[in-house]
Amino acid sequence: MNTDRSSLHLEGIPADKLITLQGYLEPFQLSLEKLQEVSHRLRRDMTRGLGKHSHHNAPVKMLPTFVRATPDGTEKGDFLALDLGGTHFRVLHVRVVEEEQKVLKMDSQICTIPTDMMLGPGQQLFDHIAACLGDFISSRNLKGQTLPLGFTFSFPCEQKEIDKSILIRWTKGFKCSGVEGEDVVKLLKEAIQRRGDYEIGTVAMVNDTVGTMMSCGYRDQSCEIGMIIGTGTNACYMEEMKNVKRVEGEDGRMCINTEWGGFGDDGSLKDIQTTFDVMVDEASVNPGVHIFEKMISGMYLGEIVRLLLVKLTEDKFLFSGQASETLLMPGSFETNVIYPFISEHSLENVEHILTKLGLKWDEVDARVVRVCCDTISSRSARLCAAALAAITNRIRNNRKLGHLKTTVGVDGTVYKKHPNFGEELQATVRLLAPACHITFMVSEDGSGKGAAMVTAVAQRLAPACICTLYMPLY
């Protein structure tokens, strides 16, 4: 096993079983040398994504965000924020207080997105969003105010302006028709107009990684990277303008939305994909797309574990060879089930979960499942570290620094709720980027407060808006 933590979980598993188990888990255990190679591949793909001509076919899209400034402490006012990035959708009222230099979440509301709506007509989805926003405005007595809106839309988009963003493709299980290739801000405004019972002010389109970076940057001026490890995964960072060949301008920096979830879509990660990764990809709503995301993010980790457990059961290594109907059902082993397997010192919660899955287990079975969860989680954290090292090493080289000190704003349920993910990610990135001193700051409502901050900065810079100073080259 590749971590001290895993070895602690091996206690109680007979030696002969351990040898056999190692054979199953070995494809998930990546050496430091292999991680360095993966990191190098991503750096190469980042350069391709920034190119004026090469970006069209680049798996890592490196999308310009047209965000050129961070907060300076003079921003103030009330803002609405919408956050769509997974199976739930949030509406927030955010207040920026200049005197205290604080970003306050005044109130928020969570709306669920039914599965059929994730796969149905796009108009239905945006009508649902507009309805949630309208209910929130009405219930919080905000009607009559035309507040600026920060719209966090956490899917790969081609940003044309700060308020114009074209959806490239759906990810994270969404497949709504009539949205890909369309301006999502326009679709939202049209849905609000169809209701006709409230108005919104200017709109700033914000990716969740950018929001995370901006919310943390308000507190820490050295925060130049935003990273999400949740239902999906992505990162952004401040790139030198001279390297962003698709946008006019040589001076200063621009925030780049890497869309690193697409890393490997050209087959560059085939050597580390396991048969279980391939099965997850083939069963997804978008086969062949977002390969890296499917290896490390919360939407898929539980399913990778489930497929491994099914294989171990079929081979009569687990549960006396008897799988339950529940275990055989795709999606039945959710990622949040992994957390108690790893965090609990006793096996009580683990045993409860196995029983709930309809399995007949013994203590050795429970320990084996724990090691499987730990190994697949560990691979996720280490691959994420390889990707983050690619960014930090690039920033350091861009600036010709012997040593880089930077802060990463982080959000996402896997990073926040997994008991060991952050610790392993940080330890691994130190090995892969030894010349970079990286501080990790957990974002507080980054996709909400950060969206408000982007909107506030854009308002502060108006009318010489950053989105009009740097025009895309196509």
Explain the overall architecture:
The protein is an alpha/beta fold and 474 residues long. It folds into two domains: 1-60 and 221-443, 3-Layer(aba) Sandwich (Hexokinase, domain 1), CATH 3.40.367.20; 77-206 and 448-458, ATPase, nucleotide binding domain (Nucleotidyltransferase, domain 5), CATH 3.30.420.40. Helix content is 43%, strand content 18%. The protein has 17 helices and 13 strands. The strands form three sheets. A six-stranded mixed β-sheet has the order 1-11-10-9-12-13. Strands 4-3-2-5-8 form a five-stranded mixed β-sheet, sandwiched between helices. Strands 6-7 form a two-stranded antiparallel ribbon. Strand 9 and strand 10 (233-240) form a beta hairpin. Mean pLDDT is 89; it is low at 1-6 and 464-474.
In the CATH scheme, the class of the largest domain would be Alpha Beta
Strand order of the largest sheet: 1-11-10-9-12-13
Tell me the Rg in angstroms: 23 Å
What spatial form do the alpha-carbon principal axes imply? Answer: globular
Helix and strand sequence? HHHEEEEHHEEEHEHEEEHHHHHHEHHEHH
Strand segment count: 13
Number of domains: 2
Fraction of residues in β-strands: 15-25%
Structural class: alpha/beta
Mean of residue pLDDT values: 89
EC number: 2.7.1.-
Pathway: Carbohydrate degradation; glycolysis; D-glyceraldehyde 3-phosphate and glycerone phosphate from D-glucose: step 1/4; Carbohydrate metabolism; hexose metabolism
InterPro entries: ATPase_NBD, Hexokinase, Hexokinase_BS, Hexokinase_C, Hexokinase_N
Family: Belongs to the hexokinase family.
